[in-house]
Amino acid sequence: MAIFSSTQPVGLFSPEHLCFLAAAALFWAIVIFIGGRLDKNGRQRLLIILWAAFTVIEMGKYLHFALHPEEFNIKTGLPFHLCSISLFTYPLAVFTRNKIFRNFIYAVNMPGAVFALITPDIGHSTALSFYFLHLMIAHAFIAVIPLYMVCCGFFRPDYKVLPGVALMLIITMLPALLLNRLLGSNYYFVNGPVRGTLTGQFAEWFGESAYLLPMLALLAAVWAMLYAPFAVRDHMKHKEVPNTN
């Protein structure tokens, strides 16, 4: 099978998939490298460029649906999946200094995008299809923005606001739950696993009735990995402060 075939479906961890994963990792490294060599104003401009590019890419999906209505499915195409809500959460994080908004995109949107890149809901898409290209490119941008913000000093992840992040996650989930009830859809993947994704894998291991429990455990583990380095560093700094009493 030829790489980047326009007729053969992409397989999970196929050469095409692995090429896009490598390209995403290279893209992240280049963005962080460039950002690290800019002054404060330059870093801010680059952040806005990244956000604007992601917004155009994501809105391009809805333009594509407008031009090809036969490809739109109301049960999957609305912006109420975890990564799709980045359209709403990223402006809040980019243009405000609110800790909860910024920690939300770091603790929720970023790992969600990374997992979507690693185990995407590819279906029967080809490597050159709009669906696959948009999925990989959009999620690469979703992941790079919070990563860039942390690496380039826009904010410091703070585990103390994780309860607020969890509450925000629940609030953003409510419209999806309502739509799922009305449409029989599966936004946020809470109504059932999807084959080829992490939800599908967990369903195979633990059963379809319990796949959300390991998802929650995985989220807790991811949060521990994302915040532990900063918590440990803060603890070490606290120990180094001399006692003046």
How far apart are the first and last residues' alpha carbons, in Å?
73 Å
Which radius of gyration do the C-alpha atoms yield?
19 Å
Question: Could you give the count of β-strands?
Answer: 0
Write down the overall geometry: globular
The secondary-structure class comes to mainly alpha
Which sheet architecture does the biggest sheet show? none
Strand proportion: under 5%
General description of the model:
The protein is an all-alpha fold and 245 residues long. It has helices at 15-36, 40-67, 86-95, 99-118, 130-151, 162-183, 198-206, 212-240.
Q: How are the elements arranged and paired?
A:
Blueprint: H1 15-36, H2 40-67, H3 86-95, H4 99-118, H5 130-151, H6 162-183, H7 198-206, H8 212-240
Could you provide a short overview of the structure?
The chain has eight helices and no strands. It is mainly α.
Keywords:
single chain; 245 residues; mainly alpha; 8 helices; 0% strand; globular
